[in-house]
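To: structure subgroup
Subject: Chain for Friday's discussion

All,

I'm putting the inputs and outputs inline so they're searchable in the archive.
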Amino acid sequence: MGDENTGGASEPHPHILVLTGETAAGKTTTCRRLARYAAEKGLSPAGIVCPARFDRGQKVGIFATNLRSQETRLLATSISSPKPGNLGYQFDDSTLAWANSALAEALPCDLLIVDELGPLELEIGQGFTSAFDVLRKGGYRLAVVVVRPRLLGAFATRIGLPFTVHVIQGVSYEVAEADGGIPSCFHKYFPS
């Protein structure tokens, strides 16, 4: 794991921390832990986290959880035989609209989480599109945004703001439980 500033400024304002890593590295798990940590410290987390939906050990979909209300809805279901160029999921339009509304209403907050801005947002122009305006607006102490490694360049172009990158290389649950699972880079924004 490491930090790398990719935005050209030593201390971006507002602070945007991009979590990146390969599939199943623990990006969403880290986002959930960051939100819990912030709430335990009396801070206000807001935004959307998107944990996987599993059935008998197989990933069959994606949920979306509004961190402010804790309401969870089914965001997407797996497509058994995706066509070439298809993302492999069927997204629920009403849940996308609900999540975009939750993001638009997330400010002000101490910690804004957007899990994730992926191919849907950065290549197709759909999905959590309200996140870009919310991130540019500010009104948060720290924004944590999940972006896949191959999409970091597209995110940088689209957001037009400086950000710091933190690579998640895998969450060890035993170690993570001992230290709260909080990346050390988070502590500089929200000291213990």
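Points worth raising on Friday:
Residues 27-40 form the longest helix (14 residues).
The two ends are 21 Å apart (CA to CA).

D.
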